[in-house]
Design goal:
Radius of gyration: 30 Å
Order of helices and strands: EEEEEEEHHHHHEEEEEEEHEHHHH
Keywords: Coiled coil, Cytoplasm, Membrane, Repeat
Largest sheet: 8 strands, mixed
Distance between the termini: 70 Å
Structural class: alpha+beta
GO molecular function: SNAP receptor activity; syntaxin binding
Helix content: 40-55%
Protein name: Synaptosomal-associated protein 47
CATH class of one domain: Mainly Beta
Organism: Fregetta grallaria
Family: Belongs to the SVAP1 family.
Amino acid sequence: MNEDIRIHSWPCSYYLDTSKQWVSGRLSLTPVAIKFTADKTGELLVNFRLSSISEIKKESSNLIFSSLTILEKNTKHWFSSLQPNRNVVFNILEHFWREQLLSSQGAGAEAAALQSTKGKELTGLLTGSQKRLEDTAKVLHYQGEQFDNIMRGLNKIEGDMDVADRLLTELESPSWWPFSSKLWKVPLETKPKETATVSDSKNQEGIIIRIPVIITHRTDSNVKPGKLTLFASGLEISDCNSQVIHRFESKDVDDIRVHTPYEISVRQRFIGKPDTSYRLLSAKMPEAIPILDMQFSKKIQFLEDALGFVGARKSPQVDLGTSMWQAATGLLGGVVQPGSPVGGGEGMDNDQVQLQKQEKISQEEAKELKQILKKLKGLALEAEAELERQDEALDSITTSVDRTTLNIDKQNRRIKKLT
């Protein structure tokens, strides 16, 4: 992720201690730093990392009103005249600061990341791919349940059609027909059981991912912290106390706009009344966007500032593609048989030759990588089997719908004759 991307910026004033005066400019937030640029000169007066902040407070005095102070190491920075208001800026800055401290990419992890081995890098890469496959499996499982519910509903419709067919036969039979009374005795006990299984599936639905967010409703200037929860059937926005603010079912979402890798907006359109729209900002949003892209591929739109994120997501280093799989197996081969060439074939490409020249990974890392690869293979096979099952279910549903349609047309013609 590009560390220079601007997440948000606000017009404000900064107290310049050297000249003892207030300077107007813009306060900017990036994924890892806070910056202040003066309006008149364009000079960068403030530039420090989020990991170096020890405190963010809302303060005021007899000279400074509605100010925001940031304690960075031993230096206290004062910001005032914040727009749209101080609370909005405070909530967003505090959110990203706390997430930076909690994240593995914080100050302590930054130094360790520089010394990470190729094994650790590859382990992190495969772990991310495993998480992506697990999320995909959850969505596929939910879709499979929906197909099962559709099949049960169609079977129930076909049963009702059989009942209607018997009733029509009774009506079409002459009054002297001796077996007509038996045709009315149709079992009706099968109705309640089907509805119960359909309603229970949603209650047992699992959570794919839950992240902390800063919530803005429609065009309101006020923001408040909360949570975004993604399910296979939709998404849910709740406050800090886990009270649901709004739940969007998949069919209710009309569009999702990705403004930056850290900010999205979700909207449901209505005719004759205002749309339901929420703008969500989060330091963890890059983890949720790939899942949203998978669930709402036809409804999601990446705006200009987020196009770079799309390219990074679809690069071979992120997806579990052929090149990554070859790199993983190649490195593992170098550990198990250090003396043998990686890949062992004449068709070895330049990337594999380069990997062979790099440092070898440890036995512990190789063991961990093998376990992850084994899980990935199992998840991929399960996903493939589920997709095949869903294809068969779709064929059955199509056949059943066609058969039901023909029965309905046939019964409509019989009803017309009776009337």
